[in-house]
Amino acid sequence: MTGTAAQKFNTLELGRFVAAMLVVFCHAAPETSIHAAAPDGPIFGGIVFPGPLGVQFFFVLSGFVMVCAHHADFGHSAAIPKFWWRRVCRIYPAYWLALLILVYYLHGGMTPGITLHLVSLEPGLMGPHFNQEYIPAVWSMRYELAFYIILGLGMLPYIGKPLLGAWMFLTYWRWCWRWFPFTVMPVHPGWLLAANGFFALHAPDFVDFYQLYFMAGLAVGLLFIRRKLTARLWGVLAVAGAVVLVLLLPGEGWGITYGTPLHSVFMALALASLIGGLAGLERCSVLRLGGWAAWLGAMSYPLYVFHMPLLLLAAHVLPLGLFHGGLLYLHFSLTIGYILLVSALVTVLFDQPVQRALRRLTRRIWREPAAAMPVLAPLYSSNPNH
Questions:
Q1: N or C end of the chain: smaller count of CB under 10 Å?
Q2: Is residue 56 within 8 Å of 268, Cβ to Cβ?
Q3: Residue 284 and residue 235 in contact, taking contact as beta carbons nearer than 8 Å
Q4: How far is Cα of residue 105 from the mean position of the Cα atoms in its chain?
Q5: Do 303 and 279 meet the contact criterion of CB atoms below 8 Å apart?
Q6: pLDDT > 90: what percent of the chain?
Q7: Distance (Å, rounded) from C-alpha 104 to C-alpha 360?
Q8: What's the CA gap between 1 and 70, in Å, rounded?
C-alpha cells in the first residue's frame, strides 16, 4: 500500500464497531426477551434492531477498503496469492475458534459435507444441499469471500479488469435488468441468459445482489484514491450519503430488511458516499479520532463472529428463569457486557497476536520465496515490488 491507502481511518473503524454492535443487539435482544415474564413482554417493547443495516455497511466498507489498499496490485499476477493469503489469515483464525464452541454442542450434525462447508466458508460452490450455518451471522462472510476471489482474479494482467467489468455487468443485469438501458429490448441476448443461468446454478454467491454493495464500495474507493477533493466536497459527499440513507431506510423497515435489489443499488451508493466522505474528511484532518476508535474497529470482527456462540454458551451454562421489569434489562446489559468482554479478550489474546504472527510469516515467505515456497518462487520473483 502506498500513500493514503496505507492509512487506517479511525472514523471508519468506529463505524465498523457500530455496525457490529447493531448485529449484536439484533440477536441479543430476542434472546433476552425469551426470559421476559408475562405481562412484561419483550425487551424494548419488541423493537427489532437494524442488524441488516450493519451488514450492508460491512459489505460497502469492504469494497472501499480493498480497492484503497490494493489498487496498485492490479495488473500484477504475483500480488494475487499474497492478497488471498492475507484474506485467509484475517478471516479464518477467529472464525475457527468461534466455530469450536458450536461444534462442541452440535457435533452430532457434522456430516463430511457440512463439515467442509462450515470449515471452509466456501461461497455457495457446494450447492443448496449445504446451506447450514452453525454461526448464523457468518452467512455474510461467504459473500465476502466470493468478492475476494473475484477481486483477486481482477488483478490478473490484461484480462483482470475485463473480468471484473464482466462480473459487475452480469450481476447488475441479473438483478436490475428492468432498469438497465441495454435490456429494454424485448429479447435478451442468449449468451447473457446462459451466463446468468450458469452462475445462478453453480456459483450463486458470486452474482447475488449483495455483491452490489461491494461494487458501490469499489466505485467510491476509486474516487477516493484518484481524486484529491477538498474537505468541503468530501463533506458534501458524506452529508448527501447520510440524507439519502435516511430517505431510503423506511423502505427497509428502518434497517431490519434488505429491500429489493434495485433499492439495494441506491442504498449501497448512499452508504458508499457516506463512507468515502468520512474517509475524505479524516484525510483532510477535519475529523480526528484517537486510537481508541482503531481498537474498537479491531474488536469488531471477533465481536461479529463470537456473539452468537457466546449467547448459546451462556444459555447452556446458565439456564435462567423469567425476569420482571428492571431485572430483564439488567440481564440484557450483563449479556452485552459479557459479549464485549470476551470479544475484547479474544482480540487481545488471540486475534491480534495471531494476525501479527501471520504477518511476520507472510513477510518472510514473500521476502524469501525461493527458500520458503520453492514451487511458487518463479511467480513471486516475477515482480520484485510484490
A1: N
A2: yes
A3: no
A4: 27
A5: no
A6: 63
A7: 32
A8: 6
Query: How far is the CA of 308 from the CAs of 49, 105, 283, 322, in angstroms?
Result: 15, 13, 35, 21
DSSP string, 11-58: HHHHHHHHHHHHHHHHHHHHHHHTTBPTTS-SGGGGPPP-HHHHHHHH
Domains identified in the chain, total number: 1
Query: Residue 373: inside a domain, yes or no?
Result: yes
- Taking only the tens place, the pLDDT of each residue in 86-135 is 999 999 999 999 999 988 887 777 888 888 999 999 998 887 777 788 89
Domain containing 210 equals 3-381
| Percentage above 70 pLDDT, the chain | 90
Is 386 contained in some domain? no
Query: How much is the average pLDDT of 317-324?
Result: 81
29/133 Cα distance (integer angstroms): 20
Q: How far apart are CA 211 and CA 174, in angstroms?
A: 11
273-283 residue pLDDT tens: 999 999 999 99
Which of 19, 20, 44 minimizes the C-alpha distance to 31? 44
Secondary structure (3-state) at 323: strand
Tens digit of pLDDT for each residue in 5-23? Answer: 446 799 999 999 999 999 9
Cell (9 digits) for 13: 473503524
